[in-house]
Each structure stands twice: as structure tokens, then as C-alpha cells.
Amino acid sequence: MINKKISIKDIAKLTNTSITTVSFVLNGKGRISKEITKKILDVAAKNGYEPNRMAVGLRTGVSKVIGLVVETIGGPFFGAMAKVIEEEAEKEGYRIIYCSTNNNIQKGKDVIRMLSQQLVDGYIVTPMKGLEKDIQNLIANEKPVVLIDGYFPDLDIPHVLVDNHGSAFNAVDHLLKAGYKKIGLITADLDLIQLQDRTRGYKDALKANNIKEDKQLVFKLPFDTDKDKAINSVKAFIQQQKQMDAVFFTTNYLGTMGLESIKQLELNIPHDLAMISFDDNEIFSLYPPGITTIQQPTYEIAKSAIDLLLAQMGGEKGDVSKIKYQIPSKLIERGSTVTKK
């Protein structure tokens, strides 16, 4: 049997007070005696009273709810950041509504529309091209927004993410200094600024080391490709590029599929093919000989994003639109990139 939630009317009956008195006490209004206030609060706590946040929001204009809109809440990267954001938000009395877009523009629009109808106080959003107007509308309606893991190049909206360009540059430079010259790039065919910055870092590292870019060594895999088909596509690319001695994967899901592809081709890492993946994953430390990765500062990204949002919602004055944090990553060197003999 499901217990019915206790209401303000129920608390009034249990405490032999009026609904108005109970409402004043629960909302911290009016001048109610300490004895009655304690009695009402004790009954409310004992019976698990929870206010209707929608009703509170309509009355006060504050719902104490934050909308978190990311690519996929189920992945390790966004899951780790969501945990930090939730913990920090709870310290200030806020709850989180989690939403995933799966890099689908229409889903992103629908999610933002749904959250705006729920009177959400602020938003942390992973941006996608096509959501510019939706996010600008939130800001126009005086809703604080912080972008995370991406940004809109032409818009001044506060954002926090890893230094994608610098991280990719350092990864490819590491391969070059280890003696690898024919370095491939496998990335997702998505119009995301973070992937563009990683690709630019790859190209700039080649240029800085006087290595001519070979377009045949760049492979873009459609984002929604079935896993088995994706693995076969990566295998075909590796087989076609016989001259390639190393490969840089721009995401960890591509990196894990890359491992499977290399395994099926019965190639040895790093003697036949060295590799680096963006974003660390447990499998990369366990898979022999250990895969070199770019470790994203998930805690720092998440903490900076929620602190920036809470500051805005707390009424902190000043123009935050030009706050743009790019946090350095850490290159975790493992056996997949040992110096070439």
C-alpha cells in the first residue's frame, strides 16, 4: 500500500492549527510563536512533508531546481561530472533534473522547453549547433546558463571545459617525439566545437613538427553508426592506411571501439600500431600494454561550472558572459606509446 503524501491541510489538523498558520511556518513568514512553530515543524518532519516545488516556484519565482542537459548522462565522463554537480548543488539546497540529448538537436530543444515549463532556476548545458536560439531565449528570460564541455564561438555565454586544442596538440606531439611519423586521426562526424578543437590541435602539432598533413589519415565516423558496423569501418580504415604507425582517437568510445578493431586485426600495440585516446577509461589501464590517454579534469570542470551557476543564481553582480574557462588536461603515458625503436 502506498502512503499518501502529507499535505499542509493534514499538518494543520494534526497540530490543531489553521492552514494559514502552517503555511506561514513552513515558508518562514509571519510572526508565529516558537512553541507552535516547533510543533508544526516536528510534525512535518516526522511525517516526511515535502513541498510541491512547482507550487512553490509559481508563488515565489524560485524552484530550487537546476536543469542539467548533457550528451548522455549514462557515460562515465558526464556521470562523474553529474555526481559533483549534484553534491555541490545540494549544499545550497538545490536539486538536479538530469536530461540527455544524445546529440539530437530536436531532443535538445524539447528538453530545454520542458525544463523551462518546470520553472527551473538555472541551467548547465552541453551545447550543440542548433541550440543557440533556445539558450539565448533562456538568458533573455533572465535564467542563468553555464555551458559545459563545449561553447558557441560567436556567443558570449559563460562556459567551462577542458583545453581541447592544447590537449590534442600535446598528445600528438608526444607521439611524434616518440618517433611516430604517420599519425592517423579517428573522430566522430559531429559538428561539435570540442571535436573541431581536438582536430585542430592534431593538425597544429603536425605542423609544429614539420610533418605534412595527410588527409587520407583522417577518418570521420558517423555518430549514430551501429557498434559492429563502426568497428568494421575502423578496421577497414586501419587496413587501408598501411603506412600509419600511430592513431589518435578523439573520444573514449571511439578509443574502445578502436581497441576492438585492432584486436580483431591481430595487430600488436604499439609495435604494429601505437595509439592514444582522448578521455581516460578503466579499460585503458587494464588492456595490455596499457593505453596512453588524455585524462579530463572532470572534478574541476564540474565544480567550476556549478560554482559559476550558483554565483549567478545567488545574485552575484557583474557580467559573467565573458567568463570562459579552459582547464588543462593530463597526459597519462602507458605502454601504447613507447618510444619507437
What's the structural blueprint in terms of helices and strands?
Elements: H1 8-15, H2 19-26, H3 34-46, H4 53-60, E1 65-70, H5 76-91, E2 95-100, H6 105-117, E3 122-125, H7 132-140, E4 145-148, E5 159-162, H8 164-177, E6 183-188, H9 193-208, E7 218-221, H10 227-240, E8 246-249, H11 252-264, E9 274-278, H12 282-286, E10 292-295, H13 298-313, E11 324-327, E12 330-332
Parallel strand pairs: 1-2, 1-3, 3-4, 4-5, 5-11, 6-7, 6-8, 8-9, 9-10
Antiparallel strand pairs: 10-12
What features would you describe in this structure?
- The protein has 341 residues and is an alpha/beta fold.
- It folds into three domains: 8-50, no CATH class; 64-161 and 298-327, Response regulator (Rossmann fold), CATH 3.40.50; 164-296 and 331-337, Rossmann fold.
- The chain has 13 helices and twelve strands.
- It has helices at 8-15, 19-26, 34-46, 53-60, 76-91, 105-117, 132-140, 164-177, 193-208, 227-240, 252-264, 282-286, 298-313; strands at residues 65-70, 95-100, 122-125, 145-148, 159-162, 183-188, 218-221, 246-249, 274-278, 292-295, 324-327, 330-332.
- The N and C termini lie far apart (71 Å).
